[in-house]
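[Meeting: bench + compute handoff]

Bench side (C.D.) handed over the final construct sequence. Compute side (W.E.) agreed to return the predicted structure before the next meeting so the bench team could plan truncations. Sequence as handed over:
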Amino acid sequence: MSDLEIAVRQPWVVLLWSFGLFLFIHLHQYLGGILAARRSGQTLDAIMSGRHQDHTTVLAKGLTTFVVGIPLTWIAVLLLWRRPIDWMGLRFDGGLLFAGLGLGLVLPVLVALVLKLLGKASIWKSLGMSNRRERVAMLLGIGCMALFTGFAEEVVFRGMATREFAHTWGWPLATLVGGAYFGLVHLISRIKTLTVRSALTIMVASVAVSFLFVAMYTHSGSLWLPIGFHAAWNFSLVGILGLPLNGKTTTAGLLEIRLDDSSWWTGGPAGNAGLEVSPVAIAAYLVVGLLFIAF
């Protein structure tokens, strides 16, 4: 379906509606938290805040995220957002999904290696769980959460918000506004630990990575390429490198990357920023995005 056949929506309506659907999609978190609390004997607050984390709680939350969160996302798209999935780029494409997964697994590792060459990171074998069954459970839970996050966030921030903005303003301005929207939502989830510097860093990184996601989206004509990349990036960061994601630490990484938290190169203290907002990562987003645009 062409743009001429799609009615334009007011940008403020797009923002409010998509954010409401984002909250709706994440209702699964409470169910996952309740199940994890019952399995572990911990309080719901300890589970939801991340103060208690083990293979049982991560697996319970991950499976709930995958089984409940992804269907909720489809309900939001098909019944509540009500745009043609072909116009949004949501017609399934397994080839693009796997291409995105492959690139998303590799790029964080390359960023970590660059930081190591700069003397700002050290790479160790993981000092976490020695029990193989526990590690597999933890990685499965992390993988389920990564797949959900990649799918849900690309649907909301690119397939819904940025796609609608582009219909009104064109892709360049839509990418900038959509990236700022993406960053603001992530700031809300970390409001207690923010400083002015970390907030600015997160916003710059959010716009830069949104540029990459949109470049993948417009180059392929499909959301499945950025969905795969987003999911694999999150999994690689946590499950392979053992690094914080959105300020939350993990003990499940196959490796343990130690960053120089005082260095500008690593994005500052890991609790506020970390590898995903480091200048090296931002440069990677921009370079890879430009390659998609050029070719």
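W.E. noted at the follow-up: The chain has a mean pLDDT of 87. C.D. will use this when planning the next construct.
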